[in-house]
Amino acid sequence: MSDCIFxxxxxxxxxxxxxYEDDVCLAFxxxxxxxxxxxxxxxxxxxxxxxDVDADTLSHMIKVVQIVAKNIENKLGAKxxxxxxxMNEIAGQxxxxxxxxxxxxxxxxxxxxxxxxxxxxxxxxxxxxxxLVD
Length: 134
Known about the structure:
This protein is of the alpha+beta class. It has helices spanning about 5-10, 55-75, 125-134; strands spanning about 20, 25-30, 40-45, 80-85, 100-105. It has a five-stranded antiparallel beta sheet with strand order 1-2-3-5-4, with helices on one face.
């Protein structure tokens, strides 16, 4: 996709701080740097989101996520990570080329908040379960 910014990074048409590259994917520092070392892992083939990616590519990418995260842990001293992929605008996806965020965590006030709301008193878990398995 010629107008995709990630495809342009893959094709070296625009610069990117690439920290890993192989035949299937590459990883580069996110411009936003939510925390130091915030990295994106992307497939070289253009896929809009996770549901479009073939299993072999996705499997390879998660292995690369692990390699890159270990490097960030060793070199930058991260104490944990949030591994995130947003799908479609409703979930916060702004670039429609599948990518996995590696967000290193250093302390509880490092700039990133993953907030999960407990709705256990408001939902019928059995009803949701039945819909999913029927």
